[in-house]
Amino acid sequence: MAADLFAPLLKELDVWSRCGAVARLWWRDDDAAAPSASLERLTRLGADHGVACGLAVIPARTGPALRDHVLAAPGLLVLQHGYAHANHAPPGNGAWELGPHRPMGEILAELRAGMEILRSLFGERFVPAVVPPWNRMDPALLPQLPGLGFRGVSTEGGKNAPPGMPQGMRQADAHCDLLSWKGGPARFAGPEKCVTSITEHLKEKRSGRVNPDEPTGVLTHHLEMDEAAWIFMDDLLSATRSHPAATWTSPADIWPPAE
Q1: What tens digit of pLDDT does each residue of 175-232 get?
Q2: How many CB atoms lie within 10 A of CB 126?
Q3: How far is residue 188's CA from residue 73's CA, in Å, rounded to a whole number?
Q4: Pairing of strands 126-130, 76-80
Q5: Superfamily of domain 27-168
Q6: What are phi and psi of 17, to 5 degrees?
Q7: What are the start-end ranges of the E strands in the chain?
Q8: What is the Cα–Cα distance from 178 to 4, expressed in whole angstroms?
Q9: Partners of 28 in the beta sheet?
Q10: What is the DSSP string of 90-104?
């Protein structure tokens, strides 16, 4: 991919460098449940660049096969992708698993059961942060999450992010989804759109218009990625890893264990 496609991002990182600051980014990948050729590719990509990835794993669909893959790959961390990735919203309301369409007790029971599954399978590789399926969550659930042991939430920045994190909880969203989901099968959203999304969030952090402590999130979906998306992610990691004002942080550092 032509280097000039990353020129706006690198120019913004140069500004961070002149300010003596380092821009923190992080990588989230959704809908993990079992090993696959595409997950192998994601794992190799992260290892080649020395970048950790937070796999949003669906508790009700996963098992020992994914456990064995994750435990053999030091760069993979596990986040909780709801419970079963099942839509419970009535027609015409969009897709929601963690929405206001069911009793709260039922949803919390599923989240608790999902956490138990992931902790049992992945041990210390499990990072207790909720990634709501379809990036939608009823804000009324937020005050209940710390009592279940969760440390944070990750949705889609600027769109479906629930307002107001309870004390002790941290929000770290995805600000750039590499895929477009409109008008048919998922496909690469395009280098210009992705570079712009990342660059604009960095500018907003630098100017104080958004939380400067929130890392800029890049979202992949290994099961849906086309070749153009894989190539872009490889090039993005190369471009940013070689810049002194950019660093990729691990989900374990975003949501460290409670003291």
Answers
A1: 999 999 987 899 999 999 999 999 999 999 999 999 999 999 999 999 999 999 999 9
A2: 20
A3: 26
A4: parallel
A5: Glycoside hydrolase/deacetylase (3.20.20.370)
A6: -65, -45
A7: 23-32, 53-57, 76-80, 126-130, 152-153, 170-171, 176-177, 179-180, 187-188, 216-220, 246-248
A8: 18
A9: 54, 219
A10: PTTS---SBSTTS-H
87-135: per-residue pLDDT in tens?
988 898 888 899 999 999 999 999 999 999 999 999 999 999 999 999 9
The answer to whether residues 83 and 109 touch, using CB atoms and an 8 Å cutoff, is no
CB-based contacts of 230: which residues, under 8 Å, 6+ apart?
41, 45
Q: Can you give the pTM of this predicted structure?
A: 0.96
- For residue 1, give both structure tokens: 């991919």
Residue 184 DSSP label: S
Q: Cα–Cα distance between 29 and 69 in angstroms, integer?
A: 15
CA distances from 60 to 83, 154, 204 (A): 6, 19, 37
pLDDT at position 157 is 81
- How is the chain split into domains, by residue range? 1-17+172-244, 27-168
* CB count in 10 Å sphere of residue 88: 16
Tokens standing for 174?
Answer: 């995805």
| C-alpha–C-alpha distance, residues 80 and 98, integer Å | 12
